User: What shape does this take?
Amino acid sequence: MIHRTHRFHGYNSLRFVYKNGKTVRCPNSALKFVHNPRRKTYRVAVVVSRKVHKSAVVRNRIRRRMFEAIRAISPQINGSYDMVFTVFSDQLATMEYGELAASIASQLQKAGIIATLPTSSSENML
Assistant: This one.
C-alpha cells in the first residue's frame, strides 16, 4: 500500500485537481493531474464509482491494486504532483498486475510525470 503522506481524498481536496488539472486517458481509466508547488511530494487519489461495480469489495480491490502499482513506480515520479485516477471499468480487478502497472506507467509518461521507462535488452532484440 502507498504511504499515507502520498494519499489524499475528499471532495474539497480533489476540487483543485478537477478544476485546474490536465487529463490523460486510457481505455480503463483517466489520470487528472496538476503540479502543486506547495507540496514536497506527490499525492494520489483513486476514484472508483459505484457505477463501475456494485460490490464495495471489488471497488476496494481495484483501489488497492492501483495504489500498489503506483507505489512500485513512485521512485521515478519527478516533482510534487496531485494526481487523481478515475476508473471506468471493473476489468482492472481481474487484469494481470504487469498489464495494470504498464497502463499506469504509460499514463504517467504521457503526462510527463515520469521519464520514459528503460526497456529490457530482450525486448530490444525482438
